[in-house]
Amino acid sequence: MKQRTKPRMLRLYLLVSSLGLLGVAVGLALYASQSRIVYFFSPTDIAADPPETGRVVRLGGLVEAGSVQRSGDGATISFNVTDLKNTISVIYRGVLPDLFREGQGVVVQGSAGSDEIFTASEVLAKHDETYMPPEVAKALKESGRWQEGQNGQSDNGQPAEGEQTGGTTPAARSTAEITTESSP
What we know:
Layout: H1 7-33, E1 39-41, H2 43-48, E2 56-63, E3 69-70, E4 76-82, E5 87-93, E6 105-112, E7 117-125, H3 134-142, H4 170-182
Parallel strand pairs: 1-2, 5-7
Antiparallel strand pairs: 2-4, 2-6, 3-4, 4-5, 6-7
């Protein structure tokens, strides 16, 4: 005579197999996305523990004053990214964002070579004169080089008290006033 599986045991088998399938699905999803994850590093992080050669990462800090140099072809730019504790040399071939300049926050995406030069495939600049990427601000705070109100931000990354948060900038306002005054 054949024994039937009790409903209680059947539910237990179903639950265990469902959890097993869910675990396998999550594991496969994490494994597949692992190659697309791009980690953020500060110059101090890279100096302490460099990523493996060729791994795509993001490097953030300030563009060191006096370090921007253009090559003869005009398309290759080299500059240094610093967190005021360590400095990494960066080479980028392409058009820089309009807001890119020395002394400002920048995040570059690319890979570090064996020659300790970071080859950037993308340069991300800040979007206005008081903004600094949160990762860069955090790296500067950790290095002990961040000061309250630096670049118009408080410790929480928000504009400092009394700073403009939007609307018309003083330069744009004076342009608007001039245009209004000269209109008939």
